[in-house]
Amino acid sequence: MVIDLDRCTGCGACMVACAVENNLPTPPVEAQDNRGLTWLRVYQCGNGRTFPDFKTVFIPVPCMQCDHAPCIHVCPVTAVDYDTETGIVGQIPERCMGCRYCMAACPYHARTFNWWDPVWPKGMEKSLNPDVSPRMRGTAEKCNFCHGRLHRAREKAASEGRRDLNPGEYIPACVEACPTRAIHFGDLQDSEDPVAKLSKSPHAFRLLESLRTFPKVFYLSRQDWVKDVGKSRLEMLRKDIYRDSESESNG
């Protein structure tokens, strides 16, 4: 996945589409703000300057689908798995015992805890996605790139005697809903895939790269300050050290 931050307007359509596609219920009215289920969150960041130099950016943050996912290694009941064919990090709610080690291990805060049994307003049950089972309370949840859509696409391909999916046959709901086409989805392993080419752009970067979790979600921006937002404190310290060293050598 590649997300063009210069195109994102922060409209939240991706978050709504994610919730509808994956049967994410709204929390009770009395619930605290941080007790809702959110598989995809859009953060707003500023450049720290005042008007007229102030700039802002919206950063959609789903699960990063890391190649070296910390959440996999800390789960004591093997409720987190890694699909070697697709590279998608999956969550198995039937195994999850709610310890939340995975939430503590995720450096992107991309996981959420299910505090409540799912309840929908009367009549809304009829509009639920039949391809995605609602989860019970007491389990951790996360984005899985809409596995219901992946299974549906695979079933369609199998019915037509195909094993491989056609390009564009499977895309997550957030990609389809984005009105500015800021979110791109494809095969990073295929060098000819447009998304793989975007990930190699000089304007591409990943969040917290110094942690070496190797996320499969890339971001695009032509603004240097936006790229700095995605760096960890460790990277910023290293940048300051290198800059000071260069200044001393030049001075």
Automatic annotation (TrEMBL):
<keyword id="KW-0408">Iron</keyword>
<dbReference type="Pfam" id="PF12797">
    <property type="entry name" value="Fer4_2"/>
</dbReference>
<dbReference type="InterPro" id="IPR050954">
    <property type="entry name" value="ET_IronSulfur_Cluster-Binding"/>
</dbReference>
<feature type="domain" description="4Fe-4S ferredoxin-type">
    <location>
        <begin position="54"/>
        <end position="85"/>
    </location>
</feature>
<dbReference type="Pfam" id="PF13247">
    <property type="entry name" value="Fer4_11"/>
</dbReference>
<keyword id="KW-0411">Iron-sulfur</keyword>
<dbReference type="InterPro" id="IPR017896">
    <property type="entry name" value="4Fe4S_Fe-S-bd"/>
</dbReference>
<keyword id="KW-0479">Metal-binding</keyword>
<dbReference type="GO" id="GO:0046872">
    <property type="term" value="F:metal ion binding"/>
</dbReference>
<feature type="domain" description="4Fe-4S ferredoxin-type">
    <location>
        <begin position="87"/>
        <end position="116"/>
    </location>
</feature>
<protein>
    <submittedName>
        <fullName>4Fe-4S dicluster domain-containing protein</fullName>
    </submittedName>
</protein>
<feature type="domain" description="4Fe-4S ferredoxin-type">
    <location>
        <begin position="1"/>
        <end position="29"/>
    </location>
</feature>
<dbReference type="GO" id="GO:0051539">
    <property type="term" value="F:4 iron, 4 sulfur cluster binding"/>
</dbReference>
<keyword id="KW-0004">4Fe-4S</keyword>
<dbReference type="InterPro" id="IPR017900">
    <property type="entry name" value="4Fe4S_Fe_S_CS"/>
</dbReference>
